[in-house]
Amino acid sequence: MSEVPRPLIRYASLDPEARLGLPSGSHTTPSAATCLLATTLVGGAVYGSSYAFREGEWGAVAWEYLTGFGRIPIPIAILSIWCIVFLTLKALKIRDGEARRVFALAGYLVFTVSTFITGRIQRDSLFLTGFTKE
After folding, report:
1. pTM of the full predicted structure?
2. Of 21, 51, 85, 90, which sits most exposed with the smallest number of CB within 10 A?
3. Are 16 and 89 in contact, with CB atoms under 8 Å apart?
4. Rounded CA separation 33/44 (Å)
5. 86 CB contacts (<8 Å, ≥6 apart)?
6. pLDDT at residue 17 tops 80
7. Phi and psi at residue 31, in whole multiples of 5°?
């Protein structure tokens, strides 16, 4: 009976979450626990630093935007940070051979969305030139 060969490359040595000893998701999907931990750390750093510098000129502006001019959009900011963390962790899980295709598709998506938004802006601008401000 022959022995089963051990793999040369192990998942735990390639996956960034597994290397740090955190729970890891399957394939390129990050774990929700890792995303929550990273979001808490990044969100705490963003809000903590802007709170610490809120007395200065730029700090006051940053704090005002982060707290939504008194209307508290903190859940929106936290969800945005969650998305950034999720996409960053996902990007770290891309294998070397896949990077070119992923960046090409991401560039295509950004170009498509930018073109759509620019078209809407031009359409609205041209429509509004026929009216006066009164």
Report:
1. 0.52
2. 21
3. yes
4. 16
5. 30, 35
6. no
7. -75, 145
